[in-house]
Specification:
CATH topology of chain A: Farnesyl Diphosphate Synthase
Strand content of chain A: under 5%
Structural class of chain A: mainly alpha
Number of domains of chain A: 1
CATH superfamily of chain A: Farnesyl Diphosphate Synthase
Radius of gyration of chain A: 18 Å
Strand order of the largest sheet of chain A: 1-2
Order of helices and strands of chain A: HHHHEEHHHHHHHHHHH
CATH architecture of chain A: Orthogonal Bundle
Shape of chain A: globular
Largest interface: A-B, 58 and 57 residues
Oligomer: homodimer
Chain lengths: 304, 304
């Protein structure tokens, strides 16, 4: 199983991430539909992309926040699998030639290179659909109101005021001059929206009180933004081995990031500030949030 | 407002279809999200494709079956809008250059011609996501269990054992020799699955008893298949004015249809048999099913 290309495999965060990743991968394999004829190809493409590794931060967030709110592991695992399906769909479509045109991801050919473009479009469509099917399943939560709340929030995170809109913005923003507010807004739509949902999902599953739900949402928001800043930093510094994909692409494409606006040092300081803020959000949860604390520290340590 | 290119605008079926179409179009415009920045482009593409006309048979089925089971019009209209979003998403993605590569649909440029490929992929993704968001909305039904049932059934109709799998099969099946069973199976996945769901949706909304739910499902199944056969007949006969898109494409692409297998006459007889069967399914509903009866007759009359 892959853990990205990060070499720090012995710290508590990567151990916990690895355990969660194994669980969610097993569940994803069980949830993949079966085919009896030619359409097996699209399922193969879905499986290929789902099993291509990655740190599985989103499912980890679902499972850890669910545990904090006393949610059963099976329930959490279903929602974690749904989130990973949604995330993987977005990667497949973003990699398409008409979008970011990426040939490699996590050191392997992207879906449209390994299969073909039509299969890649359909595999993404199939995963997005499967994500909603999983959330509507009683195994995600016995209370249908909770399932509907999950579906509603995930749809908003993925839709035109979330991920789809963020990707549209990103494509159109090349070579535009953007201020900090616009950059932050579109990155929130494109990337954090699903990360925030992943954190909030545990609170929804556990019917958490508003104050605790907000704390978890704040934590997810802060680590999501910090993660993005550090990814951009690594991209700019060309540490391709660390992030497992082609580097320097954003600058080459004239894409505005926070770093191009304020410089690497200020961006790093901002990321540190966000991680400290994320840790403060966790105080109310005491020892139960230890894995989430380690994740926050792991994210900031990637920058050094 | 467009009604396809069919000239029979004075019969009861087309009048009822037209009324339903106007209602669902108004609702769709209300349900489209708003944007504040560059991402407006993807919303424009979604609106363009949603408003490009068509007979709106699927939303009509939702609204008519919902009425039979005593469901409120507002509830039905939400679900009808969701189904039309899902149908429109499938048209946009199917038209892409890497798929069926169609430049025109209903006499207008397809989304990737009018906008561009990336916007078309994202508009489809946005519409699919919006479809699920609408179904999770309380306005679709006050009972969350009903909303989850709708979401679950729609996801299955759209997923790899439904529309996505059917499209994958269709792309791979070119120049293959297919028997009747395989043709019927993949057309069921690609086209009827969503039509059957559209009929069943009214029964789910109305918590219909099993026998009546099966009757409606049988009706939707039969008119769905008849509709497909007649569409293929018109395609083969090159009556492009009637169906509003490039004709003869299936034969040119070496695609197997029921007609290429059994000939036009037998296919027409089969369609007639299906329509009679569909009418029998409606008997249990008496006068309430008058509009559905007219729709069945309208479908078979297109063939002459």
């Amino acid at each position: 199983m892959k853990q990205g290309n990060d070499s720090r495999n012995d710290n508590p965060a990567t151990i916990a991430l690895g355990q969660a990743a194994r669980q969610v991968e097993q569940r994803l394999l069980k949830l993949l539909p079966r085919a009896v004829d030619l359409e097996q190809r699209v399922i193969d493409a879905m499986e290929y992309s789902l099993m291509a590794g990655g740190k599985r931060i989103r499912p980890f967030l679902v499972m850890e926040t669910a545990a904090i709110f006393g949610v059963g592991a099976d329930s959490a695992l279903m929602v974690a699998a749904a989130v990973e399906c949604a995330h993987t769909y977005s990667l497949i479509h973003d990699d398409l030639p008409c979008m970011d045109d990426d040939d490699m991801r996590r050191g392997q050919p992207t879906v449209h290179k390994k299969f073909d473009e039509a299969t890649a479009v359909l595999a993404g469509d199939g995963l997005l659909t499967l994500a909603f099917e999983i959330l509507s399943d009683e195994r995600s939560h016995m209370d249908a109101r909770v399932r509907c709340e999950l579906i509603s929030f995930m749809a908003r995170a993925l839709g035109v005021n979330g991920m789809v809109g963020g990707q549209m913005f990103d494509l159109l923003a090349e070579n535009q001059t953007l201020d900090k507010i616009r950059i932050t807004r579109f990155q929130r739509m494109k990337t954090w929206a699903l990360i925030i949902f992943s954190g909030e999902a545990g609170a929804i599953l556990g019917k958490a009180e508003v104050r605790r739900r907000h704390a978890i949402k704040g934590y997810a928001h802060d680590i999501g933004l910090a993660f993005q800043i550090i990814d951009d930093l690594l991209d700019q510094e060309g540490v391709s081995a660390k992030i497992g994909k082609t580097t320097g692409k954003d600058a080459a494409a004239g894409k505005a990031t926070l770093i191009s606006l304020v410089g690497a040092d200020q961006a790093r300081t901002k990321a540190e500030m966000l991680i400290n803020q994320a840790l403060q959000h966790l105080e109310v949860f005491g020892d139960k949030a230890e894995n989430l604390r380690n994740l926050a520290k792991f994210i900031i340590n990637r920058a050094y």
